[in-house]
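> forwarded from #structure-qc
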């Protein structure tokens, strides 16, 4: 979970792409992405359990790491969870010392949830060290141009994937 923020890459024109990839290559990529997601979810769940948290609790820490301090309402929007559920998650994270609620300096009625980065690094970074080392080792096996393509692919997946249950099609 603890990671250095990714440097912002300047937008650049994409090289002309082939008309289409063979279906079997697309299927192989889809399977690899699904395996990566499943492994990440299961590993994050194990880490959360190790420090006495639930899976949703750990994901909220990811959101706060990615987006910085957020209101409970914004956490509800990003997670797709109800505000009542969000309050419970924040309570658990606050009790565990991973977050604190602070009043917004410009509007004292507004509450901001802030991640305790020091505590996060102290408690969680050692548990993710092996994952970070594996990622770095795999990344070193690619050249800069290949990494640019991989990063672009993953960024596009994040941009275009449904981000909340509300983005999914309605039940038939």
């Amino acid at each position: 979970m603890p990671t250095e923020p990714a440097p912002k890459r300047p937008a650049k024109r994409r090289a002309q792409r082939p008309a289409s990839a063979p279906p079997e290559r697309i299927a192989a990529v889809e399977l690899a992405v699904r395996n990566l997601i499943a492994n990440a979810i299961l590993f994050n769940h194990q880490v959360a359990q190790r420090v006495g948290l639930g899976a949703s609790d750990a994901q909220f820490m990811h959101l706060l790491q990615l987006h910085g301090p957020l209101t409970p309402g914004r956490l509800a929007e990003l997670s797709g969870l109800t505000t009542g559920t969000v309050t419970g998650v924040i309570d658990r994270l606050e009790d565990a010392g991973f977050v604190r609620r602070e009043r917004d300096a410009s509007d004292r009625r507004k509450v901001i949830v802030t991640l305790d980065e020091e505590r996060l690094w102290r408690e969680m970074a050692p548990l993710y060290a092996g994952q970070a080392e594996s990622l770095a080792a795999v990344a070193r096996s690619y050249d800069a141009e290949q990494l640019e393509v991989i990063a672009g692919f993953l960024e596009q997946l994040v941009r275009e994937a449904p981000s909340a249950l509300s983005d999914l099609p309605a039940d038939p």
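QC bot note: The helical segments are 23-50, 55-67, 72-79, 83-95, 117-140, 144-160. The domain at 25-143 is CATH 1.10.10.10 (Arc Repressor Mutant, subunit A).
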